[in-house]
Amino acid sequence: MLTIYHNPRCSKSRQTLALIEENNQEVSIVEYLKTPLDETTINSLLSRLDMSPIDMMRTKESEFKEQNLTGANDNQLIAAMVNTPKLIERPIVCSDTKAVIGRPPENVLTLF
Which of 10, 29, 79, 82 is the catalytic position? Predict the structure, then answer.
């Protein structure tokens, strides 16, 4: 079973979800803007993505600049993602052991 951290207003997120469904994959949908991720979940995703927190962030969002996150340490970046879910790159799709960011949507194909 896959899990997609999804924003239905995002075209790449919608395209990624459609690709999962077209390939008959069972998927759990988490709308992370409605159900914000906690620090434990973010750390788990970072581990499965094999990324640093800055790589999982939308650094061009105004909130990134407003919160003065340029040069912030990993703990500060994770706290920012917990408090401002809009900063999380989307969509993130994960299996039990691995995760990918669906940009481009075809990245998700590596999970099945």
Answer: 10
DSSP string covering 21-34, please? HHTT--EEEEETTT
Cα separation, 103 vs 31, in Å, equals 17
Amino acid identity of residue 77, one-letter, is L
pLDDT digits (tens, 9 = 90+) for 34-50: 999 999 999 999 999 99
Average pLDDT of the residues in 74-96:
97
Residue ranges making up the domain that contains 75:
2-111
Q: Is 10 a catalytic residue?
A: yes
Helix axes 74-83, 39-49, angle to 10 degrees: 120
The Cα–Cα gap between 54 and 14 comes to: 23
Kindly report the CATH number assigned to the domain that includes residue 24: 3.40.30.10
Are the C-beta atoms of residues 101 and 56 closer than 8 Å to each other? yes
